[in-house]
Design a protein that fits this description.
The protein contains seven helices and five strands. The protein is of the alpha/beta class and 143 residues long.
């Protein structure tokens, strides 16, 4: 079994076809993968759907169906309150959002890799001591 922290910008690709969807889906194809997320994962996903509705890219009904599909994925959910102290320190050090660093802290705490499609975050962490915990989505199939 291999543990992966999956951020919202990767998980959304499971239900909305976009660049890297084929790679993101491979996380689901291997039933030995254990997928970890922080507790604010679903509100973050909901916000992505809300933005798509506002831009006219989706309807509320479509978004709710996609949300239902995502809720069927076997995810281990962890409280962000236990991750926030280290996430804040990391965010301060690498000058990135605390939200992103919560995912990273979750990966560190579970000796996992965070799979992300956030290239800005990947570039920001590249020279940090925690960079080995981060996997750019295009590199995922090569792990």
């Amino acid at each position: 079994m291999v543990k992966f922290v999956v951020d919202a910008n990767v998980a959304i690709k499971w239900v909305i076809p976009e660049i890297h969807t084929d790679i993101a889906i491979t996380l689901l194809d291997d039933d030995t993968n254990i997928l970890l997320v922080p507790d604010f994962f679903f509100p973050e996903i909901g916000n992505i759907f809300w933005k798509r509705i506002k831009r006219g890219e989706s309807t509320l009904d479509q978004a709710q169906e996609s949300l239902r599909e995502l809720r069927q994925v076997n995810l281990q959910i962890f409280p962000s309150a236990t991750l926030i102290k280290d996430a804040l320190a990391t965010a301060n050090r690498i000058d990135q959002a605390v939200y992103d660093c919560v995912y990273l802290t979750l990966a560190v705490n579970h000796n996992a890799k965070i799979v992300t499609a956030d290239e800005r975050f990947v570039n920001a962490i590249r020279n940090d001591s925690l960079s080995s915990y981060v996997c750019w989505i295009e590199d995922f199939p090569n792990l």
